[in-house]
Design a protein that fits this description.
The protein is mainly alpha-helical. The protein has one domain. The protein contains eight helices and five strands; from the N terminus they run H-H-E-E-E-E-E-H-H-H-H-H-H. The strands form two sheets. The chain has a three-stranded mixed beta sheet. A two-stranded antiparallel sheet has the order 2-3. Helix 3 crosses helix 4 and helix 4 crosses helix 6. The longest helix is centred in the N-terminal third of the chain and has 65 residues. About 13% of the residues have low confidence.
Length: 291
């Protein structure tokens, strides 16, 4: 055998051995990848399971808390029509509505053995802005409740727009452009934001919104409707008030189904207000607890 052939034989053997080691290493890496993928899938299942358990626990807490609310229909506080000709301020009307809503929830929670709610408010004048405790800037077109400073912010430009009728920037107003809303539409907004304060007082607001905004927005609509029922029972509703509330509820609905901040469609928000209004029992609002 020539020297060249003697040299080639070990090289062939080494190449074969090296090739075999490469295949083994590849198989090992593939096994590791499959094992890691299985672990990731299991972790994902575990996370979904924990999220589902959290959702059910929260839903149960909402149901238990709202079930404690007795079907007491306290009389609504005095509620007059807002000025049409500037003989009193819109700010005064917003304050009057808030006091009526506050009186309703104070009596309702107290009758159920729950601490009465406390909340601050700020009606932002035209052209003004305010830094909230939630690190948002609220301007004169705002309508929000901030749990960070336990304050309701409503811009007077926003409220004035509702008094005049549906505005162009309401996302759900397609079918009613130009149709007047009116003062009870403003009252609906105040009562809705106060509903968020009640959720916060009951320990539900922050936890719920981390999971989904929609059920807690609809629940606040339902709570606003239950206050509207107290106004009706007190004989203080005027002709057209219910229609004004429903028009506003539809106007602030949206169709952003994929957004985590989707608040509900116009019809869903209308139906949520009606649920509370027709029953007058805030415990029915547990239907929006998600469980």
């Amino acid at each position: 055998m020539s020297a060249r052939r003697r040299l080639a034989l070990p090289l062939i053997v080494l190449a074969f051995v090296a090739g075999g080691c490469g295949e083994g290493e590849t198989e090992r890496l593939a096994d590791d990848a499959r094992q890691r993928a299985n672990e990731l899938r299991q972790n994902a299942r575990d996370l979904r399971g924990r999220a589902e358990r959290l959702r059910h626990r929260l839903a149960e807490r909402v149901r238990e808390t709202l079930d404690r609310l007795e079907k007491a229909i306290p009389s609504a506080g005095e509620l007059t029509r807002p000025p049409r000709r500037g003989d009193a301020s819109l700010e005064a009307f917003l304050t009057e509505v808030l006091r009526s809503v506050d009186a309703y929830w104070t009596a309702t929670l107290r009758a159920s053995g729950i601490d009465e709610p406390r909340v601050s408010y700020r009606w932002i004048a035209a052209g003004d802005r305010a830094l909230t405790g939630c690190r948002h800037v609220a301007d004169d077109d705002a309508a929000l409740y901030c749990p960070g400073d336990d304050t309701i912010y409503i811009g007077q430009a926003f409220a004035a727009g509702i008094l005049r009728g549906i505005r162009d920037d309401f996302p759900g107003q397609r079918a009613g452009r130009g149709r007047a809303i009116g003062d009870f539409g403003v009252a609906y907004i105040v009562a809705h934001e106060y509903g968020h304060n009640v959720q916060q007082e009951l320990g539900l607001f922050e936890q719920g919104r981390r999971l989904a905004a929609k059920p807690f927005e609809l629940q606040a609509d339902c709570m606003a409707g239950s206050w509207g029922n107290s106004v009706y029972r007190a004989g203080k509703l005027k002709p057209g008030d219910v229609e004004e509330a429903l028009s506003t509820a539809k106007a602030v609905g949206d169709f952003e189904y994929l957004s985590p901040q989707h608040h509900g469609t116009p019809d869903e928000r209308r139906q949520a207000w009606l649920r509370g209004y027709r029953s007058g029992d805030p415990s029915v609002c547990r239907a929006y607890s998600g469980g």
